[in-house]
Amino acid sequence: MPALKRLLRARLARRCSAAFCLFWAACGAAGGVFFFLAHGGVLLSGRCTDEQSHRILARLCLDYRKGALTGDLCEDLCVAQKLIYKRCLYYDRGKKVIQADWRGRPVILKSKNEIFSSYHHLGFLEEMEPQGIPEAELLLMVALEIKNVLGLELPNNTVVPLWTKGRGPHWKAQLASMWSLLQQEEYIYFSVLQDFSKHVLRVIGSCGHFYAVEYLTAGHTWQKTLFSVEDAVGVSFSGIQSKAKAITEIAISFLDMVKHFDNDFSHRLHLCDIKPENFAIRSDLTVVAIDVDMAFFEPKMRDILEQNCTGDEDCNFFDCFSKCDLRSRKCGAERANNNLQVICEKIFRPWFSPNFMGSAVSFPLQLQLQKAVQDCAEASTKDTGHHQSHSSHSLSELYHLLRASQNELQKSGSYPHQIHQ
Ligand SMILES: Nc1ncnc2c1ncn2[C@@H]1O[C@H](COP(=O)(O)OP(=O)(O)O)[C@@H](O)[C@H]1O
Ligand SMILES: [Mg+2]
């Protein structure tokens, strides 16, 4: 299906270097290569520099002053100096991710592309005065774009968080800016899910093609506790027991997120790029998905997976895969693994190392937890016919064991009061 191939190409292009993509093209879409691209691809491109990032923001402000773009944060960024650059967090070929300080509050600025003009522009803006275009027609255009990205029919009010309000003197720049944001799948996902989920990033505002989201404590593979709890909560977590308590709460929040993405929307939400760096925690230790470039609702997931194949390895899409039906030479449309299984495999398993909670939680309980995580991670390699029921068993078992850990910690009197302020 050409549209899907385009989607795949576009997303891969942002995650791998040109040379490596050529290598990939030559090799074909082998599963192992997909995996390597998702996780090793970024290693091949360099980290951003302050100079580069200053240049990007200077260009943004130049376009703002020329009247080409606008947004509620432009004045603070380009004139009042109340949105101030701090550091950059992106890889060269990835999307631009910049940390800034907005009126004393840390925020993150994100954009898929560096320059405003590299987004498709609305042709009619050049040809006619946008004031003359009926609002209903513009709204329809936005609704179609959202539908196209999410692969879903949504109620009319879904457009509201993405719709630019008020036909001011800068209406043309407003429309052009909104259109650049609508070309960023991640912005659409965050905006649409704002009021429905505490597990996605809050959008704070925008300037042109850059949107600002809340700054949170992101995960890191090298961090023993995965997230720096001290950074998130703002107090010292010196005791092993306070750490164990925080780890338990974060792990429970991961399970809440899995349950929520599986059940609480009209369609299941699949996460296909699961790694510590793509999640963060708020100060109340809620887990938040901060990179949803590879998140898809069920109908879109089915379209992506249903490709021609000669073996199972052709049916892998990053962390989401299905099986190849060798008779019809088509990958199954239904995902064969699920969010919980990948979280167990890539987040819980390395995190819950032997005796990871020290003496704070009894050894037999930690052992049971590790075994449950192992079992959950291996679910999809077992009989796939039963993996859904196996997974719901894993989910309840993990909830049960993590709550048992909380009870042990509470009994031993080590429940830190700092966490819930
Ligand atoms: N809201 C945020 N708060 C704190 N750090 C963030 C936030 N968003 C992104 N980051 C950091 O920037 C990195 C890159 O952002 P991400 O959206 O994952 O971009 P990419 O698509 O290039 O992987 C993340 O791994 C994380 O370390
Ligand atoms: Mg990422």
Automatic annotation (TrEMBL):
SMART domains: PIP49_N. PROSITE patterns: PROKAR_LIPOPROTEIN. It is a single-pass type II membrane protein. It is found in: Endoplasmic reticulum membrane. Residues 13-166 form the FAM69 N-terminal domain. GO terms for cellular component: endoplasmic reticulum membrane. Transmembrane segments: none annotated. PANTHER family: DIVERGENT PROTEIN KINASE DOMAIN 1C (PTHR21093:SF2), DIVERGENT PROTEIN KINASE DOMAIN 1C-RELATED (PTHR21093). Belongs to the DIPK family. This is FAM69 N-terminal domain-containing protein. It comes from Podarcis lilfordi.
